[in-house]
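Notebook, p. 212. Picked up where the previous page left off. The plan for this session was modest: take the two constructs that came back from the sequencing core last week, fold each one, and keep the raw output in the notebook itself so nobody has to go hunting through shared drives later. Recording the first one now, exactly as returned: residue sequence, then the C-alpha cell string.
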Amino acid sequence: MPAPSRSRLSLYLDLIRWNRPAGWLVCLWPTLSALWIASDGFPGWHLLAVFVLGTFLMRSAGCCVNDVADRDFDRHVKRTAARPVTTGAVSVKQALTLGAVLALVSFGLVLTTNAAAIAWSVPALLVAIAYPFSKRVISMPQAVLGIAFNFGIVIAFAAVQGQVPAVAWWMWLGNLFWVLAYDTEYAMVDRDDDLKIGIKTSAITLGRFDVAAIVLFYLLFLGIWGVALAPYGLGPVYWLATAAALAQGVWHWTLIRHRTREGCFIAFRVNHWLGATVFAGIAGSYLLRQMAAN
C-alpha cells in the first residue's frame, strides 16, 4: 500500500523545523540576554514579543533559503535526504515564497521598534541569505552562521537604546564562539558525507583538533561574556549560572570526544540549555535586584 501523501501544512512545518526547536532556541537565548542587559532588566512585553516571534520567524525563513541552496547536496547526506525541498515535495518556488513571507512578517515586527533597529535588520537579512552559499567557498562557514545569528544581540541593543554600545559587540564576539562550538558539533555529525560531496565545514577544517577547539570555543564564550558583563554587577546568580553552563560544556566534551554521530548530534540538540542557563542567570540577577529594591 503506498504511503499517504502529506498535507501542505505538514510539509511546510517540516521545512521550518517546527518539531526541532533547538535551532531557533540557540538564537533566542543570547538575544534575550542582550535585551535584558540593554534594558537593565525586564524589557517590557512589547519588545519581548517582538524578539521572541522575530527570532522564530527569521530562523524559519533561513531554513527555507538553506534547504533551497543545499537541495543538491542534501540528497547525498543521510540526515538531510528526506527534507521536503530535497525530495521535491515542496518546490523551490514554494520554499522561497514561504521564506519571503516569514521574513516580511518579521520585518513588520521590527517596524514597531525604532529606526536604529530597522537599519540593523537589513544587514542581518543579507547575511542570513548569504550563509547557505558560504559553505562552497569558506573553510569555516560556521563563522558566517555566527554573524547571522548574532544580529539578534545587535538589534536588541538598538531597539532599546537607539545605538549599539561596546558591550553589545563584546557579547556579539563571545556569542560567535558559542555558535562555532555548537555548529561544529553539528558539522561533526555529517563530516563523512560532507567530505564526499565537497562541502566545507569547521569540522573538516579543524580536523583532529575539532574536540579541543570546541572546548576552547565554550571557554571563550563564557569568559568573554563574564568579562563584558562584570561591570553590571549581576551578582552570584549570574556567576552560578555561568558555572552551570561551564559544567554543561564539560558534559559536551564527554559526548563528542569519541566523535560518534550519535554523541555529536545529542550535544548539538541540547545546546540550547546552555544558552538558557546563561540567560536565566542574567534575568534572575535583575529580578533579585528589583525585589531587593522594593
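Okay, moving on. Second construct, recorded in the same format:
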Amino acid sequence: MSASGGTKAIVAALAANLAIAAAKFVAFAFSGSSSMLAEGVHSLADSGNQALLLVGGKKAKREATPQHPFGYGRERYIYAFLVSIILFSVGGMFALYEGYEKIKHPHEIEHWYWPVGVLVFAIIAETFSFRTAIKESNLLRGKKSWKEFVRHAKAPELPVVLLEDLGALVGLILALGGVSLALLTGDGVWDGIGTICIGVLLVLIAVVLAIETKSLLLGEAAGAEDEQKIEAAIVDGDVVTRVIHMRTLHLGPEELLVAAKIAVPQSDTGAEIASAIDAAEARIREAVPIARVIYLEPDIYSEAEAAKGADRHAAPGGPTPPGTEH
C-alpha cells in the first residue's frame, strides 16, 4: 500500500488496539464490568479492522490479469466495506446485547480500580493512535473540512481509521462515565447504560462508513479539480480543439480511468490525429499522475449538435447512439 493509504496510521491503530484489548479483558475478568467486556470486544474488532485494511492494501497491488484487465485496486474498497459492515456492526450489536443484559441483571462492580485504570490507559493509547491518523490525513486533506475529507476521500483507509479512533475515544469516555456512575451510586444499571451508548455509537459509525464505502464500490468520478486539470491538458488549441464530453472513474484509490470524445479538425490526417492523441495522453498523465487508463476518441465538432444540449447517454470511447453523431 502506498503512503497515501495511511499505512502508518493503520499500524499505529493496530498496535494500540491490541494492547488495549488485552488490558480491557483483564479488567473485565477482575471487575465483572460489562462496559469493559464491550470495550474489549470493540478493541478486538478494531484490531481485526486494521488487519483487514492491511490485507486489502496488499491484495490491491496485484498485477492486472486477462480476467481483471484493470487490476485489483478496488480490493481496498471491498475490505473497507467489510470493516464497516461486519466488524463495526458485530461490535455494536454485541455491545447493545451486553448493555441490555447488564440493565436487566445489574450487579455491583468489583475491584473498581481495574476498569478505571484500564480506561485511563486506553484513552492515552487511543489518543496517540488518533493523533497519528490526524497527522496522516492532514497530508491529503488540504483545505477540505473533516466532513468533506471523510465523504470525498478516494483512499478508504484513513477515513475508516479516523472514525474508528474517534468512536473508540468517545466509547471510552462513555465507558468511564458508566463505570463511574455505577461506583458512585452503587447501581450497576449505569454500567449497562454506558454499554448501550457504546453500541449505538458503533452502529452509527458503521452506517456512515457503509454509505461512503458503498459509493466507492459503485465507482466514483475524479474530483472536480482533477477533472478540470484533465480537460485543460487534453486541449492543445491546434489539433485537439475541445472536449465534447468526458467520463472519469476511479478503478482504485490511486488509479483513474479517463474516457473522452475530443474534437479535431476535419482536414487533419490520421497520423496527425494519432500524434495529437498521444501528446494529449502524456499531458493528462503529467497533470494528473493517477490517470493511468486513458481512452480518447476523435470526432468532428458540430455547433448544431452541441446546441441541442448534452447527451447524457453518450459513451466516450464507445459507439455513439444512433441519431447523435456529430
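Notes on construct two before I forget. The first strand starts at residue 242 and ends at 252.
Flagging for discussion at group meeting.
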